[in-house]
Design brief:
The structure is a single chain. This protein is mostly beta strands. The chain has 2 domains: about 150 residues, Jelly Rolls (Sandwich), CATH 2.60.120.200; about 55 residues, no CATH class. About 5% of the residues lie in helices and about 35% in strands. The strands form 3 sheets. Strands 3, 6, 7, 9, 12 and 14 form a 6-stranded antiparallel beta sheet that branches. The protein has a 6-stranded antiparallel beta sheet with strand order 4-5-8-13-10-11, with no helix packed on it. The chain starts with a strand and ends in a 12-residue tail after the last helix. The relative contact order is 0.16. The structure holds calcium ion (2 copies). One calcium ion binds next to loops.
């Protein structure tokens, strides 16, 4: 790199660790904080980054066979359906994305698939699946990310999509980002006013969707309806 300073131009190299950008309000669970320990697979609760989670048939693994970042990662058991479920609805403004690292537990030859679910209540029928990933045969931690985009707080659950005779899975560095309302340009807002999704066929500014001879841009400028040939700029 080249830098200008009081001593003139200097050059040199600099090692910069680039970490992922996390928007304000992001929840990050690394299983590394004090007390983030659960040695048994039995049902229990554990506070992770300030929120209480229930973990059943799941422990927080710290063995050499747990595939993890740092000292610990979640380890989902395989003898019975396993889950970790938030005890509260998370994220006051809603959920944008949920991501985590996953791998097959190194001590097993197979791994259970994992499901990511959200809900407004913890009634069994209320869970909405927002993602599924298969750690089977995945030896190195691999990132999974799914868009949720729900603008209200939700319970979050990660569970095994259980089938008998599989094996354990590790999950680490769970990141839940806050919902962010999309920002639209004036032109896009104009399209949305007519219930048309920006980017759909025929919506580009130079196009003439309704074939009335006026481009979408001209209709935007005149505030006429670009999807009604009877509505044309004066
Ligand atoms: Ca960790
Ligand atoms: Ca037109």
């Amino acid at each position: 790199m080249v830098a200008n300073n009081a001593y003139g131009v200097t050059t040199g190299t600099l090692d910069i660790a680039v970490t992922e950008y996390l928007p304000p309000g992001t929840m990050e669970i690394t299983f590394e904080n004090a007390g983030e320990v659960k040695t048994s697979f039995d049902l229990g609760s554990v506070v992770l980054s300030g929120e209480t989670w229930f973990m059943d048939q799941a422990r927080i693994g710290d063995s050499a066979l747990d595939v993890k970042v740092g000292k610990r990662a979640a380890c989902f058991g395989s003898f019975y359906p396993a889950h970790m479920t938030s005890s509260n609805k998370l994220m006051p403004t809603g959920i944008g994305t949920i991501s985590f690292l996953y791998a097959q537990y190194a001590g097993d030859e197979k791994a259970e698939p994992l499901l990511v679910e959200v809900a407004t209540s913890t009634d069994p029928g209320d869970w909405l699946s927002v993602g599924r990933v298969d750690p089977n045969g995945v030896a190195e931690l691999t990132k999974f990310e799914t868009s949720v985009n729900i603008n209200q707080p939700m319970y979050v659950r990660i569970r095994t999509d259980w089938v008998p005779d599989m094996g354990r899975a590790n999950v680490d560095n769970i990141i839940i980002t806050p919902y962010a309302a999309p920002s639209y340009s004036a032109y896009e807002q104009y399209l949305l006013q007519y219930n048309v999704t920006p980017g759909d066929a025929g919506t580009a500014p130079g196009e003439d969707w309704d074939g009335d001879g006026a481009s979408n841009t001209n209709e935007f400028d005149a505030d006429s309806n670009p999807y009604d040939a009877a509505s044309v700029p004066p």
